[in-house]
Design brief:
The chain is an all-beta fold. The protein contains no helices and 5 strands. It has one domain. The strands form 2 sheets. A 3-stranded antiparallel β-sheet has the order 3-4-5, with no helix packed on it. A two-stranded antiparallel sheet has the order 1-2.
């Protein structure tokens, strides 16, 4: 997953997993991020949702 500014510049990688990380959304107050990932699924096709504190 990556962040950019509104102009599509300032590309910054925010995910370090080699697998599927996608569909990020921030909480309305901008303090948390939720995203879907296939990491830690034990080799299955399960997709997990992760919620994390967002720290600048």
């Amino acid at each position: 997953m990556y962040l950019t500014d509104l102009n599509g510049k300032g590309l910054e990688k925010i995910s370090r997993d080699r697998g599927f990380d996608a569909f990020p959304m921030f909480s309305p107050d901008g303090k948390k991020i939720i995203f879907a990932s296939n990491r830690n699924n034990g080799g299955t096709r399960d997709t997990n949702l992760f919620v994390a504190d967002w720290v600048d």
